[in-house]
């Protein structure tokens, strides 16, 4: 059981249930469990879902790069469902394996640098120096670098938070479900 017990499906609001069930059915989410925890805050669930729907739409980065970043972030955050799901048709098992290999040799230069930025943000953000930005600037515009940085930070932060919830753990929840905890401040 996750650290925070998921909101039971029959206790979800109609809107939250539609987001979760529709998202799982559409393949946006591999499992409903993380979303059932996020559903304690209907506003956050709406925002998370909207961000997922908008990811790669009208942005400056290729959707494949965003998907590689999402999967690499899931690998770093040890989020099994996110590591296993594919949200872009171009992603192969070889691509995913390449994300685990040092140097990510089978990726394009843009893809390698995007993954390297995520890795550095995750492990040692102090290593991101002027030389690294020069390397980024050779293959990305300044606008793309800003978009890439925020995409990495958002994805990494969500995966790290979800990991702390031990979503597929077997221990009893630390915080048990209570209807009064949904959409309510203390």
Can you describe what's shown?
There is one protein chain. Helix 1 (14-25) packs parallel to helix 3, helix 4 (63-77) crosses helix 6 (93-100) and helix 4 (63-77) runs parallel beside helix 9. The protein has two domains: 9-55 and 167-179, no CATH class; 63-164, AhpD-like, CATH 1.20.1290.10. It has helices spanning 14-25, 33-38, 42-54, 63-77, 80-84, 93-100, 109-123, 130-139, 142-164. With 186 residues, it is an all-alpha fold. The longest helix is centred in the C-terminal third of the chain and has 23 residues, at 142-164. It contains nine helices and no strands.
CATH topology category name of the largest domain: AhpD-like
Shape: elongated
Structural class by SSE content = mainly alpha
- Unreliable stretches (pLDDT < 50, length at least 5) are none
- Strand runs, count: 0
Q: CATH superfamily of the largest domain, called what?
A: AhpD-like
Percent helix, as a range, is 55-70%
């Amino acid at each position: 059981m996750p650290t925070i017990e998921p909101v039971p499906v029959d206790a979800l609001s109609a809107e939250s249930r539609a987001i979760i069930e529709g998202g799982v059915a559409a393949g946006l989410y591999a499992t409903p469990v993380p979303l059932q925890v996020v559903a304690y805050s209907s506003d956050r669930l709406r925002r998370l879902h909207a961000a997922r729907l908008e990811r790669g739409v009208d942005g400056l980065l290729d959707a494949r790069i965003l998907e590689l970043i999402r999967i690499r972030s899931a690998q770093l955050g040890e989020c099994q469902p996110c590591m296993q799901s594919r949200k872009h048709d171009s992603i192969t098992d070889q691509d995913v394996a390449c994300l685990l290999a040092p140097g990510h040799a089978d990726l394009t230069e843009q893809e390698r640098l995007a993954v390297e930025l995520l890795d550095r943000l995750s492990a040692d953000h102090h290593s991101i120096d002027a030389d690294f930005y020069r390397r980024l600037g050779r293959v990305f515009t300044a606008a793309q670098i800003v978009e890439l940085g925020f995409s990495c930070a958002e994805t990494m932060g969500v995966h790290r938070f979800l990991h702390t919830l031990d979503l597929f753990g077997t221990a009893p929840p630390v915080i048990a479900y209570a209807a009064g905890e949904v959409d309510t401040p203390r």
